[in-house]
Amino acid sequence: MNPLVLVEIPAGETKLGMLGPHARANGGVGDTGLFDEFALNRFDMKFAGFEATARELKPCGLGSIRWITRRDQQNPLLGVEAHDSSGHPTQDKTHGAETYTNEFPLGVVAFGTYAGPMRWTQRDLAGSAAALHACEPSAERSITWMIPDEPTWCIGNAQLRGGEWGPAALPADVLDTQGVPCIRRRSGGGAVLVAPNTSLWCDVSIGRFDPLWKADVERSFDWLGELCRRALRTAAPDLPWDCHHGPPLERQAGAALCFAGVGHGELMSGERKAVGLAQIRTADRVRFQCLVYSEFDVEAHVQMAQELYRVRALSSEVLHRCEARLENHVAVVPDLGAFQAALWEEFARFTG
Question: What is the pTM of this model?
Fold first, then answer.
């Protein structure tokens, strides 16, 4: 049942604590001036009828009613009592003080239907690697299986910038990649080679106000790494799979070639890296990028490291670290189809 949520305030109240000003005499209508504050405090995750962009609350059917039953000014807590359609209390739940940290006089704050579990959608997208990187993902929970039409080098957003390369050098004009297209991607990290048959590339998107969103960039990978770990254990159960937690391993090498280093949340089999992760953050969403190989072209990756050294994008010491890591510390997943199916099953079950 989707309950109607209503919080009331005496007519004429002009203050609503941390949520901002409120001067409506009509206690049955939410003040549109509070919409940005609702979004900031993730009210849109609780009310499916709330749309921050449209700045409106959609009508909804009456299921049950929830009232604020108490509040504690010293340690702000809201007690919420849920009523069934007959008006009888069904439960009492206290919301944590971490959300409501300032004075919170009772007021009309929102009404709408409760969203319930948040679902994922998936789609396939094919094209050039440049076009796939340029596409705009959904601001809702989604996973896009990217299918590049040819092998392509994708260097990180921060690589080959500044100094002798200028503010935005074109990688294809700087690097000799033996005829393989080379583009700049929008996410950070080191260079990766995507290919239509030997790699699986997917982009995972969540909205800015999704409960999964974290301000800490490194820790924001935790939940995604865990889903990948579960999927790997299903697709390749004979190998050990674990998420790396802690400081990056081989930070400088990983900044040159993604699979030469290991970042927080990325997947490993023993000491070998299996899944590379990166992200792009905008005002309204986070776009995670995941890459895993069924075949890893060591020679091509070592050549790329040597090319980056030739154009003075890395030192001889980092080059040697890259060569050692790429030759001995990369794990592959033989059946990418099984991994893709298992990963989607994990997403489909995950409503956290």
Answer: 0.69
Alpha-carbon distances of 142 from 131, 157, 211, 324, rounded to whole Å: 18, 23, 14, 36
pLDDT at position 58 is 43
CB-CB contact of 142 with 122 (8 Å): yes
Determine the Cα–Cα distance for residues 48 and 237; give it in Å rounded to an integer: 39
Structure tokens at 250: 């081989």
* d(C-alpha 211, C-alpha 19), whole Å: 19
Question: Of the ranges 95-109, 127-141, 193-207, which one carries the lowest mean pLDDT score?
Answer: 95-109
Which residues, other chains included, contact 89 with Cβ-Cβ below 8 Å and sequence gap of 6+? 81, 82, 83
What is the distance between the alpha carbons of residues 257 and 269, in angstroms, rounded to a whole number? Answer: 19
Residue 107, exposed/middle/buried by CB under 10 A (0-12, 13-18, 19+)? Answer: buried
Which residue intervals of 171-287 are DSSP H helices?
171-174, 222-235, 251-256
Burial 28-42 (b: 16+ CB within 10 A, else e): eebbeebbebbbbbe
**Residue 145 pairs with which residues in a beta bridge?**
124, 202
Domain ranges of the chain: 4-95, 121-349
Task: Show the tokens assigned to 173.
Answer: 């004009």
Q: Are 155 and 191 in contact (CB under 8 A)?
A: yes
- Residues 340-349: b if buried by 16+ CB within 10 A, e if exposed: bebbbebbee
Chain center to CA of 337: 23
Asked if 330 and 273 touch (Cβ cutoff 8 Å), the reply is yes
Q: Domain 121-349 is of which CATH architecture?
A: 2-Layer Sandwich (3.30)
- Local structure of 9: helix, strand or coil: coil
Q: Could you tell me whether strands 272-281 and 285-293 are parallel, antiparallel, or unpaired per DSSP bridges?
A: antiparallel
Exposure of 204 by Cβ count < 10 A (0-12 exposed, 13-18 middle, 19+ buried)? buried
Mean pLDDT of 109-123: 58
Q: Do residues 17 and 102 lie in contact, with contact meaning Cβ atoms separated by under 8 Å?
A: yes
